[in-house]
Structures are given as structure tokens and as C-alpha cells.
Amino acid sequence: MPDFRLCRLLGLLGALWLAGCAGPAVEQQAEEPETNPALAAEYARRAMSAWEQGDRGAAVEAWRQAVALNPEDPVAVNNLALALKEQNRFAEAADLLEQGVTRSPRVAELHYNLAVISELYLLELDKALTHYRVYQDLAGEENAEVDGWIADLERRLQ
């Protein structure tokens, strides 16, 4: 015959365990990833080397590390986005460029590449027109080819 005290103890422990499981959830705050511009520059250098050697996968991963360690670096953001574009990962490239434009709104190349990907691959013509115009303003010099693309988009969007 089971010991009544042991059964009661086990029952109380079980109830306490269940009460603990049903308690309020503990909120965990999302931690900001640590930035390390020096290490990011090393990853960017490795990425460029891998790219030049034809190892596209290693280049993308190294640029991802560089961007994670220094999301403020528009060159790393731009290079990663162009590598993703080459892998036909257009939406991912555009999202990355959008983040880059948010962090570095005065970098013309980010706007240009976002406009090209938006127009040619994602067919987001309004977004493309917006970013071509910003590119022209930031570039500081007239570009007849981009002027033509802007005029074409304006006609197509009427």
C-alpha cells in the first residue's frame, strides 16, 4: 500500500510545477546585435576576395556577416544586394537596399540599384521612379540614360 504522505508530497510538487508552467510569460527583449566595424571590414574584404575567385556563396555569407556587424556600411549593403540580385533573389536584394537607403539616404548607388531591381525584376514601377529621381538628385550631374528611364516610367505610369 502506497505511503499517504509520499502521494500527498508528489501531488503538491505536481501542482506547484503546473502552477509554475501556467505563470505569466517572461518577456525577453530583443537584443541589438553588437556592431564591430573593424571585423565587418575584414568580412567585406573576404567577401570581395571570394567574389573575385568565383565563390559566390562564400562571398554572400561573408557580406552577410559584414552587414550584420556594421549595418551602417553602405558599400557592404550594396555589394550584398548586388550578389543577391545575381542569384535571382530580387525581393531579398530590394529589402536590403531599402534598409540601406533608410540608414544612408544620401548614397546615390543604393537608390540606383533599388530603382533598377524594382523596375526590371519586381515590376514596382512607382518605387523605381522614386528612386531614379533621388539618384539623379544625389548624383549631381545629368545622366541622359537615367533621364530616359524616368521619362519612360512616367509615361508608363500615366
UniProtKB/TrEMBL annotation:
Superkingdom of the source species: Bacteria
InterPro entries: TPR-like_helical_dom_sf, TPR_rpt
Keyword entries, A-Z: Signal, TPR repeat
Stretch forming the signal peptide: 1-27
PROSITE patterns named in the record: PROKAR_LIPOPROTEIN (PS51257), TPR (PS50005)
The TPR repeat ranges on this chain: 40-73
Classification via Pfam families: TPR_16
Keyword Cytoplasm: no
Record protein name field: Tetratricopeptide repeat protein
Protein's organism: Marinobacter pelagius
